Amino acid sequence: MPEQINVALDPVASSRANVFYVLARALEPPRTWDEDLPGLLVSSFGAMPEPLPELGAKLYSQVAEILGDREQAAIDHAKLFLGPFEILVAPWASFYLEEEPRLMGPTSHYAARAYADAGLAPGEKLKDAPDHVTHELEFMYFLAFSEATTGDPAWTDRQDLFWQEHLGRWLPKFAEALAEAAAHPFYQTLAEMITGICVFESDVLAVVPPAESSDAATPM
Amino acid sequence: MSTEITPSEQASTSQTGISRRSFVKGAGTVGIVAAVGGSALLEFFTRDPAAQSSELVSRWVASTCQGCTSWCPVVVRVVDGRAVHIRGNPESLANHGQMCPRPLLALQQVYDPDRIKVPMRRTNPSKGRDEDPGFVPVSWDEAMGLIADKMMELRQNEETHKFAVFRGRYSYLRDIIYSSVPKVFGSPNGISHSAICAEAEKFGAYFTEGFWDYRDYDLEHTRYVLCWGADPLSSNRQVPHAINIWGHVRDRAQIAVVDPRLSATAAKANEWLPVLPGEDAALAVAMAHTILAEGLWSREFVGNFQDGVNLFIPGQTVDESTFDEIHTHGIVRWWNLELKDRTPEWAETQCAIPAAQIRRVAKGFAKAAPAAISWVSPGTAMQARGGYAALAAHALNGLVGSADSKGGTVQKTKVPQDNIPDFSPYQDDLAKTFSKKPKIDQRGTLAFPALNKGKSGGGVVTNNAADGMLQEDPYDIKVAIAYWANFTFSCSGTDRWERALEKLPFFVHVTTNPSEMSHYADVVLPAAHQLFEKWSFLKSKQNLHGYASLTQPSIEPVWDVRQDETEVPWLLAEALAARGFDNLQRYYQGEFADPETGQHPRDSKEFALIATKMLTRPCWDSGHKDYGKYGDALDGWGDFVAKGVWNSHRFEYGKKWGKFGTETGKFEFYSETLKKALQGHADKHGVSIDEVLAVTHYVATGELAFVPHFEPALRWGDESEYPLIFFEHRSRLNREGRSANCTWYQAHKNADPGDENWDDVLKMNPVDASLLDLQDRQMVRVVSSTGEIEVRLKLWEGVRPGTVAKCYGQGHWAYGRVAAADFNRRIPRGGNNNVILPPEYDRLSGSTARHGGVARVKVVRA
Amino acid sequence: MAKRYAMVIDLHRCVGCAGCDIACKSENNVPESFAWSNHVQQTSGVFPDVQYRYIPTLCNHCENAPCVTNCPTTAMYKSEDGLTLHDVSKCIGCRACQVACPYGVIYFNKDAPHPVFMEDGEALIPDCTSTGRETAERVDAPIPYYNPSRAETYEGIRPRGAVEKCTFCDHRLLNGQLPACVEACPADARIFGDLNDPDSPPSRALAKHHRRVLKPEQGTRPRVFYIRDF
Question: Residue A72's CB: how many other CB atoms inside 10 A?
Fold first, then answer.
């Protein structure tokens, strides 16, 4: 039985946490998906503005279908993000933010530093570069989760910074590239969903004052 | 401000069946994805607020390795609830924080890909090696119910003695399942594995110095180590201490190793004596002869001729009255009865060791004395008639006065413990009567004296239980539980065990892996791994310190397993009580209580913990009468849990002289103690001692029976048909017979001299291969008069021409995907020596003769 | 000041138990078929005058490392403390280092590592016994006894297509610990430390005993030394 968390939950932060969590999972290889992923998809978007709930419902049925037979989606996922010959959609921030993209360059280090500042260490499953899209989405989940469960505005600041300086600058481009390259309907819907989230995030986070004042939280 | 959060319906289960994720919801608000426990659910990250390295977030948990019977205190590194590494326990004075390679292999055991996850029930009523048992999963409740139903039938039919518990490896909580279960239920049949282990070794020390146990060895101060089949750098006893101190020993002492194979220890010795298997006693008595003839015995311990002139002249009888003996008994009689003609030249013809080498080693050993060790091991003792070889080899310690001396062999320090509470009040009339019936292993019958501590039938005859069951003599067994045992693999003459288990109507196997014994089971219960998932404790000694070492859970059990020695009997008691027989349950619930709180156990897990606390109380509870008396005074239970080991004071030499536990109180060369034991057995059966010796396959008659003497090797198979002598040995990576499914074992097997990685080779001298026209690395059939195996041949100079050797531990046709070449078709990887070794015994000790070249074989192309 | 790490192996104390090899596998998540820590053994002579010799081997962390000079991408490099290290992200799997190394201590992940735990397998007894993959998932780790500390300085598990090798446990050195093989050796036969410190255990051992290295004719200047005889 889960333990009880005796804090109030900010509904917006909670929803956003769920959304980032689900996106991170959905971008992982379909082979690794847990059976409850569809359930999370329906439960997570209810509090969000349209078209997100609608897209969530669409994703729900697509994911459920893939869980019945993961083969084709797994192949498409590999083609999109893994290779072996050509990667159709680069899943790393460096690719979008650097002129001569290289892994473990300044963009990767920015992400790694942000994680460390938020009190996260690499887990056992962190195999790829720090700036991989699934890592960054999970990081956003963690920040929103912490905001929702503690109510501490520091967590909001961190999200704002990370979004404006980093993730928000490349995730829309990633979604664009995905929409273009995706053959599988699931990945098409996913691209739409990510675009929708980007719009929503920019709205939500825009109301937060700029964070230049908060040096301590600024990744160097 | 706080809101109650309850799990919603979305709380989910991952593919693995473990609930990992939950979806918590604040009242009236939206829910949030979280981990079970309420924290953020992270795949790629771990919380690390202080940005510390992961080294700092791991913890070390003390436990005990039972890979061999050194029983070393170790510590387990646990990260995120997983066991990831093991080290020797730095709190231990016995192994001083060292360990051999075995504990690490335990990591591959607890996470073995083929562990049994849940209880299993057989669906195919036909039993046999070629039958698929058709196992299906069942709940613990259902499994225990099936067992209790069968046991209740025995009670209703008043034949509770037809129930048996077979015990293999064990901890010191053993009495709960091994004694209280059968005896409260009403059966005498607790059958241990001890007689396939090393009982004949204890025979040697008991009938000379009255000590039925393994000795300790003062390696730090010794000047000579004479190993009799002992290979302490790789296997029992005290492996890590021996490994650690060996460089020091080589700096100051001579080392001689008697072993038909160039063992790991022989490779690091000054002298290798590749004795003909089974002829060790010839070598030992010739060494004794030399020590006396050369006048090199201990004057201080043994005494001297009254006029100081050595009358031990080869071939000549000596008048007993001319010698004043001090701390020993029967030196002259030993000479007259046995030694006077046992010259090194005679021995060379028997055991194939050159006379000059025998003399050199005997003299070197005696001159180094009393800082000299004659180290008797199963290799020399666990032979047909091997009790006398053990006696002869151990008697050398008496001759040179190294018994109980600095630099010599010593007994042990006391490690206090409490026993399980008296269960006799819970035995009803049926139980009291039927638990006194004769046992299924036929111990104490004329042919099986098994003189444990001198008592006829005092010891077990493990391997003969199969024949008892097959012959229904003294009766048939109907229900049996075996735990931590695999007798269809580990006992010589495996076919008899297969037949006995086919015949057994209801069999329960408690085991971690689906093993050869499980294949015949009606119910299989998945056991906790001893090192990581179990409460218990062990007692042992190394480096002149005794110790009690705690075994405790360091991880959550990987699967739905229970602790064999505590939880299983508890659950069984519950199931029996539900069927109307509650004596066992009342005993466990009523007599066991936490020494700190007085609380009685309410479930099986509490029972395991409370039993461990109760039995180890003298180590940690300042209220106990023995607290701090014999060694460490640990600061309460928490301190014991943290440190994991209680160390005794260091052994003090010389206290036993004049007070040995023999009939005479002396070190007996003429064993009055053995004489009394043999007489007791003969009287019990109304025969003479000579008749006993004849029935039990010894050649000695008359007084010779009471002194260490030469008995010729006993071998199965005619030399003309089976020209080669087969013998086996141990591996430095064997966790008894349970390593073969570990890839690290297979990948490093060539650390055993002569062996190969990922193989189970028969080692043959190139001279024999050339005579037999066999090539290195080809597959061969090894055929004895009782069975055959197919393995790869390895030509190697480390074995004597005329003999072939193979390591024990492989040849599993079950156990797992690595151990067996094809589990489903029951095809072994390598060959099990016990298929070709016959069920032969050293009957005076009850021991199975697995050593001594008991099987002759022929080796032919496969 | 930079360190000059070195290991001295005292063959007189070594008993050939392979404890180093297995401890290394455990510490570094080394696939079962590789042996960063390894040994050579040899039986010579004719019965009964037979000798057995055992020499533990590992990466020599050569001062003049052919694997480094032959690596086309600088994936193989010397650290400032003299360790010969490998950066998986730069490794193109060309195996030039493997060919260049005269000691055979570099391993190539031709296939995906740890197949027992990472690939799906069938249970021997369906629904009753586990599989490797199921065990790994059960404890939520790539291999059940996976050591996360390894990942502090190297890939926790090296991927298919990359080589891998001994690092003198650089991740442990950073935490002030000895390499795992040194800590595990029950014979205390492995002596590790900084040769720039004349009082370090290896400096003292080398001052006292005649030193040997493997294949000196290769000019690699190994940092693993052997003293005395097995």
Answer: 14
